[in-house]
Design brief:
The chain is of the alpha/beta class. The protein is about 30% helix and about 15% strand. The model has no long low-confidence stretch (mean pLDDT about 95). The structure holds fructose -6-phosphate.
Length: about 240
């Protein structure tokens, strides 16, 4: 596991954007796995800036998002569909048909999940997966205890995640209790993985991921089993390891 420590959030975001830019330059039809949440916002802003400067062309890439809340319409401001279009896709030249996000409203979640997993394979697998990390160590919505063999599926969010995510909702009771999330096996099948973490609140979990053994109790610890993982973290998130 390679660890890159950046001065602050802005530097972390720039460094991640440069990495994405380089990968797209090498492979214009890159298959990119994407995350939502606060952490990748700076990366998306930086990628938009590079696109506006003419330094990146997204016209051939395909994206797969990690997760979506179950029960939220794509038009809901709290859905990850809404987040992705409003923070990234609306500002770049990606083709709509190349964007994949799990469906939040579905009558057949199991079938949708199977289809999503197949679609990833059909596109040749994920070349580069961007991840954030929950303060409980989750990646995607693979909460502590998730099987390392899990594929995309319906998951129940744990109390800590619901509490952490309540900041985006008017009322805590509005936070969905379920989501559709790529599994740990899905994530580990990506050819390259970059995990971003910023701020003091992530320092404890980052220390655990780096120093503790691989355990289902800390889902992100599974990344140690992968051959091509980079953690890009800022000094605050790294404060317990330096
Ligand atoms: C989001 C996702 C989650 C977040 C994690 C960290 O698509 O999969 O695992 O990456 O909850 O969220 P932030 O960045 O808001 O701290």
């Amino acid at each position: 596991m390679k660890i890159i420590i950046k001065k602050d959030y802005q530097e972390l975001s720039k460094s991640a954007a440069i990495l994405v830019k380089e990968r797209i330059k090498k492979k214009p039809d890159l298959v990119l796995g994407l995350a939502t949440g606060s952490t990748p916002l700076g990366l998306y802003q930086e990628l938009i800036r590079l696109y506006e400067k003419g330094e990146i062309d997204f016209s051939q890439i395909t994206t797969f998002n990690l997760d979506e809340y179950l029960g939220l319409e794509a038009s809901s401001p709290n859905s990850y569909h809404f987040y992705m279009f409003h923070n990234f896709f609306n500002y770049i030249n990606i083709k709509k048909e190349n964007i994949f996000i799990p469906k939040g409203i579905t009558e057949k979640p199991k079938e949708d999940c199977l289809r999503y997993e197949e679609k990833i394979k059909e596109k040749g697998g994920i070349d580069l997966q961007i991840l954030g990390i929950g303060s409980n160590g989750h990646i995607g919505f693979n909460e502590p205890g998730s099987s390392f063999r899990s594929l995309i599926r319906v998951v129940s969010l744990n109390k800590k995640t619901i509490r952490d995510n309540a900041r985006f909702f008017k009322n805590k009771k509005d936070v969905p209790k379920k989501a559709i999330s790529m599994g740990i096996r899905t994530i580990l099948s990506a050819k390259e993985i970059v995990l971003l973490a910023s701020g003091e609140k992530k320092s404890e979990i980052i220390e655990k991921v780096i120093n503790k053994k691989v355990t289902k109790k800390v889902p992100a610890s599974c990344l140690k089993k992968h051959k091509n993982v980079t953690l890009i973290i800022d000094q605050k998130a790294a404060s317990k390891i330096i």
